[in-house]
Amino acid sequence: MNQTKSINQFSWNRVKLLCKRYIAINRKSQLISLGIVVGLLVIFWFLSVNAGSYSREGISSLYATAFLLFGIAGLLFTSSIFDELHKPETAHLSLMLPATSLEKLFSAWLVTAIGFTVIYMVSFFLLFTGLQLVTILFNAGGVGFQFFNPFDPDTLNSISSYLYFQSFFLLGAVVFKKHNFLKTLLAWVLFLILMMIGMFLLAAIFLQSGTFDYNIVMTGNRVEFAVKTLLTLFFLWLAYVRLKNRQVA
User: Fold this and answer.
1) Is the pLDDT confidence value at 19 over 80?
2) Can you give 22-74 as a three-state secondary structure string?
3) What single DSSP character describes residue 150?
4) Which DSSP symbol is given to 90?
5) What is the pLDDT, as a whole number, of residue 74?
């Protein structure tokens, strides 16, 4: 009975072991993914320098491309994090792990959200620092040295957006057994359509009743951040409930 009670209690040690397990299973595929992203960015940088268009605008464009690739790679990784659970030949390995559903989900989130983001931000810092040094060394573009700042407001905004989308794709990783990424993407499109219809109806009601407050527009960023935070927590909670039901079943 004491053993059952200790298993049902949240354990940071088990979370650490689960994180190591997720990393071990996905290490090779994620190193390949990171290599592809870095390689593409080097190609884009080289084409920009070769075309003589490497400027501050060019650097910003390269950063935007980097975060687009970061987001795609992260969501693909997230979609596959529970593949072991959905395969008949390996499902028992996942289900028999001496860990709670909360620990499994939290570990998966730590690896695919926090760990993934840290690894990519460090990689981007090293990559862009190296590219900047090479550019200055060969006097290409005439742009002064510009550090990649992972704590820049735009960068933090991109990271927060990734964490928002990532929570939905983590839910999809638990719910869908096959073609997780594509099915989750389709579900996201349908969710957006429903959200847009709901917002349109609310706007129509407020405008018709004359109670529309333009201060809502002025505080849009704060409202958007609050909504995204609540939705992120909601998606993670749904993922936990679905995973717990699968564990019991």
Assistant:
1) yes
2) HHHHHHHHHHHHHHHHHHHHHHHHHHHHHCCCCCHHHHHHHHHHHHHHHHHHH
3) T
4) T
5) 96
The pair of structure tokens assigned to 135 is 């550019």
Instruction: Name residue 130's amino acid.
Output: G
State the amino acid at position 225 in one-letter form. Answer: F
Domain boundaries, the chain: 2-248
More confident residue, 184 or 98: 184
**Tokens (6 digits) for 57:** 């605008």
pTM of the model as a whole: 0.86
DSSP state of 193: H
The two structure tokens encoding residue 105: 């989900």
Query: For 152-168, what is the mean pLDDT?
Result: 93
What span, in angstroms and rounded, lies between the C-alpha atoms of 124 and 58? 16
Count of CB atoms within 10 A of residue 188's CB?
A: 15
Decide if 231 contacts 88 (C-beta within 8 A): no
Which residue is it, tokens 């060019």? 58
Q: Which of 25, 123, 140 is nearest to 81 (CA)?
A: 25
List of residues 6+ apart from 141 with CB closer than 8 A: 49, 52, 53, 54, 55, 58, 135
- Give, to the nearest 10 degrees, the angle between helix 180-209 and helix 153-175: 120
CA distance 153 to 161: 12
Tell me if 128 sits within 8 A of 54, measured CB to CB. Answer: no
Q: How far apart are CA 169 and CA 188, in angstroms?
A: 9
Residues in the chain: 249
